[in-house]
Structures are given as structure tokens and as C-alpha cells.
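Format notes (please read before filing issues)

Several people have asked whether sequences and C-alpha cells are stored in separate files. They are not. Every record keeps both together, in the order shown below: the sequence lines, then the C-alpha cell lines. Line labels are part of the format and must not be stripped during preprocessing.
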Amino acid sequence: MTNRQSLKLAMFLRIVLFFKKNKTLLDTFIFLAGIIDKFQDVYTSIEPILEKQAADTKGLTKTKEQALADVLDGLIPMCRKAFAWARVKKNQELKALFNVHVTDFEVSFPGQDDVTKINNLIIGLTANETALLEVKITKLNVDAVIALADVFKTTLGVPQKAKKDTKAATVSLEEEVIELTDLEEICYDLIVNEYNVTNHEMVLTYIASRKIGSATKTHTDLTFTVYADEAKQFPVKDAAVSLLERNRMEITDYQGNGEIVQFRGGDLSLMVKAESYSDKLFPFHIKSGQHLHIDIILS
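Then the structure lines:
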């Protein structure tokens, strides 16, 4: 994925969230609703590609060195806790297994030996899952490292193949980006000319959402990410986040992200509702014109 594609897709995501929020009103314009449905269908068709790259902000171009570093960032702290636990329990076998440091891995030239070491450590953590709860090593923690390890393994292919895969993904996305751009431009003409007088504030919000790159910096800008866990490893998709005092609401994307722009600052609160979680209220303060990000933990 090129940087330009990434910026455009971020813009399209804001527009998808805008369409969801204003669905009731926009559906009354039947012709426009049909175009919006086509736009959302195209976006949905590429969402699996985006979700696959969600754990890797550099997409298919991530290096094996970066991928290994990500695994070790999560794995080594757990292993050191497991090592301490094994010492107390006088388990010599696990003590030897978990006595690892970053220097035990070829961080500059990762290879299959590193994969073997990682696999052995993961097997050890999984096999002692219940016992290691004593030192706060949970299945969620281990599963997160397993996911990162899977990403690392995919980076150990032939460099030429990795380059070819990157180019293919870029070309494939470009076709969808062109179609999304055409459909969105039709939506723009219809929305602005239909609602500019009757619902000017909504039109302003839509125009702000269409900016390539960062959202507009001339208005108050609140961004947020909703996570299931304190470690911030599991984003929550489709959470409804409401800015209660301003009667604004957004739905989080597959990375748990959402954004609300153009509103008056003050002492405000977010109400977060997500399937399988209890509703949560998050008070916060934001000045008018300020750009603020909030991480929201549901667990």
C-alpha cells in the first residue's frame, strides 16, 4: 500500500462513518442512498485486506527485523515473569526455558532459528497457561504474541517475492480506490447541493471528512481508540461512541478508531456501547480548537 493510498483510505473510512451516522436522513434521498450503498459495498470488499494489515502499519513492506522486534516486545517480558515464577516453584526445566533475553535472538539478521525459539517459548507458555495466571500472564497476552509471531514468519520469505506481493497489493487496491473516488465524488455533488441549506452543519462535517490526510485542523478534533484490554492489543470494532453533550455519535472501525470533529469544547463525556461489554461513561475536557486523542479501555 502506498502512502497516498493509505491517506485516501483513511479519508474513505471517515466518510463511511459519516454515512452510518447520518443514514436515517440520507436514506430519504433514494437515488443518493443507492450510490452510498455501492460505495459501502466497494469499501467492504477491501476491508479484509485492510484488516490483514491492521497489525502492521507499514503493510506488506514491514521488514523481518521490525516484525521480530514486535514479537520480542511482547514475548520477553512474559518470559521473564515466567522465569521468576519457575524459580519460586523450583521447576528447573521451565526455569531454563524461560531464561531468555533479547540478546538471545538474531535481531539484526532474523531467521528460522528465531522462529524455533519463539515457538518453543509459546508452547511453554501455553502448556502452563493456568499456573502462570499467578504472575498475570493471560491467554489474551499469549494469543497476542502468537499473532505477532505469525506476522514475523511471513516476513522470512524470499525478498523478491515480498516485493512482488507488495506491488500486486498496491495495484489491486488502486482499482478499488479509483472506483471509491468516483462514487464519493457523485455523493459529494448530491449531498452538498441537496442539504447545504436545510442541514448546513451536516454538510460542513462531510466536507471536513473529505480532507486527504489528517482531519481539518481549524476546528475542535477528538479522535479515540476503543480497546478491549489494558494492554491495548485488542481494538473493539463497531463500538458506538456518543459525545453526549453535543448529540454526536460515531462508530469505530476495525482498528477501534473513530473521530468527531467540529464541535464546541468544554467539560464533556463519551458514552461507549459495544456488544459483549458493559456501557461505559468517560468524562474529559477539551478546549475549542484543540486536537485530542483518547484511548478507551472497556475491560
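For reference, the curators noted about this record: The domain at 214-299 is CATH 2.60.40.1120 (Immunoglobulin-like). DSSP finds nine helices and seven strands in the chain.
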